[in-house]
User: Fold these one by one.
Assistant:
Number 1:
Amino acid sequence: MPHTQQQFASDNYAGICPDAMRAIEQANRGSAQAYGDDPWTVRAANAFRTTFETDCELFFVFNGTAANSLALAALCQSYESIIASDTAHVETDECGAPEFFSNGAKILVARGEGGKLTPDAIRAFALGRTDIHFPRPRAVTITQPTETGQLYSLEEIGDIARTCRELGLRLHMDGARFANAIDSLGCSPADMTWRAGVDVLSFGGTKNGMAIGEAVLFFDRALANGFDYRCKQAGQLASKMRFLSAPWAVMFETGAWRANAAHANACARHFAAQVAGLPGVEILFPVQANAVFLKLPPDVMAALHERGWVFYNFIGDSARFMFAWDSDRARIDALVQDLRDITGARLSPEGS
Ligand SMILES: *Cc1c(COP(=O)(O)O)cnc(C)c1O
């Protein structure tokens, strides 16, 4: 049963946005060719190429784990390695799928502020061991925005890309929340990716308001060689592809992908501004996208749970709140009010 009242535990709690739903309905009028040979998939692919201002190669898959792990598998041999941040989704939340789909390429994790990799960390791995006993670094993956909602600036992406090129590494970007990053930085998708030196992008649709689906974009088309077979073998070739692709087409054409992200980001900023300074409440990371991580005393967390709020605690003793295209201001304000009540009651002796 769905929650009767909106929760902010994950941006995946949101439903399907109206434009994506309308696209599915429109794609459902009559039949169409299967496996991507349909007009909707052509329209979506062209919308991507227009939006990214380049003739990239792209593929639609069901989810982010598939997009990331198949993309990374395409960049590495089984005896090579992938440099990632220690909090990267590919490392902590994909059940070993990148290693599995690459037949054993190893993920090398580097510690970084807010989940961000640095050129120095990349260089340390790439140059630290060059002997036959160590899995040769071949790819770097960065998450934009990171799992804790931090952004790489265009300069930082450019610096990382230059480091990669210098060291013979390919650069992948996990853009599960790509649209949120675009909204925050206010730059073009091209500037945040291929113009900065990104080779392959996983672009998230699900957290942006679709029912399902991520896109994998190869800016260097040579790297996409055989990727269609990789998708099929991995069970990621949708037979009724049009239902994956139509929402992309419509959401690019109407601009909903940007508007959805802008709303989510604005909700995160609003929430953070309301809870800043509450006694015992600490905002753990700069709020640069649609995530707010709060450090809360255990009794405050318990009291929130008692009042019916659902949230995750998977990073330390923090509480994560995520905002999406459908986040309701009244519901956010109700959460803020509960936090005010709970933290205020802790301070006053009569409070219970
Ligand atoms: C949600 C998410 C993904 C995709 O996860 P799936 O559940 O496989 O769709 C990938 N990367 C990051 C950073 C995410 O937050």
Number 2:
Amino acid sequence: MAASSSSSLSSVVMVVLLLWLAALASAQLSPTFYSRSCPRALATIKAAVTAAVAQEPRMGASLLRLHFHDCFVQGCDASVLLNDTATFTGEQTAFPNVGSIRGFAVVDNIKARVEAVCPRTVSCADILAVAARDSVVALGGPSWRVLLGRRDSTTASLSQANSDLPAPSLNLTGISGLVGAFANKSLSQTDLVALSGAHTIGLSQCQNFRAHIYNDTNINSGFAAQRRANCPAAAGNGDSNLAPLDAATPTAFDNAYYRNLVSRRGLLHSDQELFNGGATDRLVRTYASNPSSFNRDFAAAMIKMGNISPLTGSQGQIRVACSKVN
Ligand code: HEM
Ligand SMILES: *[C@@H]1O[C@H](CO)[C@@H](O)[C@H](O)[C@H]1NC(C)=O
Ligand SMILES: *[C@@H]1O[C@H](CO)[C@@H](O)[C@H](O)[C@H]1NC(C)=O
Ligand SMILES: *[C@@H]1O[C@H](CO)[C@@H](O)[C@H](O)[C@H]1NC(C)=O
Ligand SMILES: *[C@@H]1O[C@H](CO)[C@@H](O)[C@H](O)[C@H]1NC(C)=O
């Protein structure tokens, strides 16, 4: 009896300690981190993002996704931006990334402009976080105060990019399902549903939705037929043919994604899993009918995602060029 109550006491102490450490790690990020060291940082990033999105609306989607793919692998440390070299293997050839993530030239351009106003001051990881927010705003979505002060890694992890970035074939629950992949990053089921709303913009390749439009049953038949027309059944044919993740309003950051799910027009299997008779159906209906509740939860979840294991203080470095370590 005494032993079990003292061990439960020590586990309570342990949990409190871990929560405190976690709070301490994210408390080091602050929305005013650059207000003295680089007061023009945020305006410089915003101007470049706004111009890039005006030129090509899809770029807003690509920049938002880069931040996600950064944060889920080693935390938000710009590891995704590091190029492979003869002696360094980065994350860009991981299955979820290769031939798919884009926007590197825009990030390099933003970094060059920021270096011109404040040399060696603003991290690439923070640039990704701010560019994600500015992209959402440029396409009509909600805004939020981005927490800043992340530093850049000198390492990357191909294996973690392959294991931790969720695949579009995932089910909602079960061992290695979507809920588990997000829980692994301290993100809740609500965060999963809200963040998936990023698929209100951008495009997907046929190879990522082929199985869904040919073999799944939880899909509107007219929609499936439409998508099959430009995505042949046989693997290897039309693999990279593109379709909008949200065909209703492909370049507007709105809640149409959730209305699509309710009418069984989710493009990816993983999208439609959020409305497939399970625990997340209710929240999908809420977001489908209540855009302000989606906007609020999306902004809160982006801040949580941006807090995943940042390097702070004297950890890592401020890269001069985002695609290589100094
Ligand atoms: C829930 C698990 C998720 C899965 C399984 C998933 C999977 C995918 C896949 C397969 C694509 C298409 C890639 C291609 O065909 O080249 C895609 C695109 C995209 N994803 Fe996700 N994603 C998820 C969550 C997220 C999150 C959390 C965000 C951001 C907050 C996000 C943002 C995007 C965007 C904006 C695009 C379009 C990119 C573009 O057009 O360049 N996704 N995602
Ligand atoms: C990284 O790769 C991109 C595209 O492949 C290229 O444009 C860029 O110059 C590379 N960066 C460095 C530092 O080599
Ligand atoms: C998802 O669930 C289906 C049906 O229960 C199962 O056949 C399939 O293997 C699961 N997919 C994954 C990726 O776990
Ligand atoms: C959870 O994260 C760890 C560490 O990155 C990784 O090894 C593991 O594969 C992840 N598990 C899932 C279910 O994503
Ligand atoms: C659909 O399922 C069948 C039977 O499991 C499989 O042979 C086929 O490759 C699947 N088609 C696609 C496009 O995934």
